[in-house]
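note to self — DONT lose this again. spent like an hour looking for the file last time. sequence + predicted structure for the chain T wanted, 383 res
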Amino acid sequence: MEEKVLMEVVPGLEGIPAAESAVSFIDGEQGVLEYRGISIETLAQKSSFLETSYLLLFGRLPDRAELKKFHDDVTFHTRLKLKILRMMEYLPENGHPMHYLQAVTSAMGMYYPARDTLNVEMRYWAAVRLIAKLPTIVAAVHRLKHGDAPIQPRNDLSFAANFYYMLFEKEPSALVERVLDVMLILHGDHTMNASTFSARVVGSTLADPYTVVASAIGTLSGPLHGGANEEVVRMIDEIGSKEAARGYIEGKLDRKEKVMGIGHRVYKTVDPRGEVLKKYIALLSEHDGIDKKTLDISAEIEKVVKERLSAKGLYPNIDFYSGIVFRSIGIPSELFTPIFALGRVAGWLAHWMEQLKSNRIYRPEQKYVGVRRQPYIPMEERG
């Protein structure tokens, strides 16, 4: 007699708690996002990415001495080993930067052994190295793919300004520097998303932190997770002009086609991260050297979407606004998702550390739907 198995499968584990966490909080109905209890709006206004990273990692804001040490430790570890740079030179030039980032992050585990994941000091230095070196990797990838030599980091610049400098060999304006720093803060964590879940699952096996983060980067590279902001920019390019935006968006909505960067699985109202970025978009629109065409088209898209979809609880999300911001300050679209990873690495590491505090390896069940008790058919009878 066949045994009866009663298991309900929830696709994508939607609505199923996978862990208890104190890292970040979302109220999708009210449009609330908090890191360790502090609102994202407050952090974007008053904090820096490195201070926010410390908050995520260690559960509280640092005092002045703690922040200085953390800043100095990160700054000291921004350079890459020569052998890592040499390895990057031999990777295919047509590869996506996310593949570079995942490969190099994984390779870092060979240069900085960190197998003793229960060692608190080891965890600290692994977190410092990953936060410090990922921007250098992304900048080096961008330059190598275009036939240029990587630029060494500058310790006299802020975290965000140094990244911009390594990309373009020039310092950003004060506004662009602040915009980049805020972008990293806004991407710092977002509860139990796919890449964070990946980090916790891999971390639960006691794999080293470089493998943990490499797995999260691979998960983020998927178009359903980290690539939506690139699609927003492709859509804007396809529209071509402010005058064409209304007809393009209304046509998509009439055909019930998806408009990239609109709506969110969690938020049933405005995305609080997008609301922060809207303020910076307004400032950028008055700034010299900014791509005004992108801003004009996006403003028209936003207007049409609000007219047609706000009653359904659908609004532009952070992917919509971040794609616009990145494009307007000259960031190439293939770097949008890698920069997402530069911010999210703080959250991944915070969840990894939290997982290790009361670790139990993830081992979910499955609902088997295949055949059973099949005979083995000899090769001569299979034809």
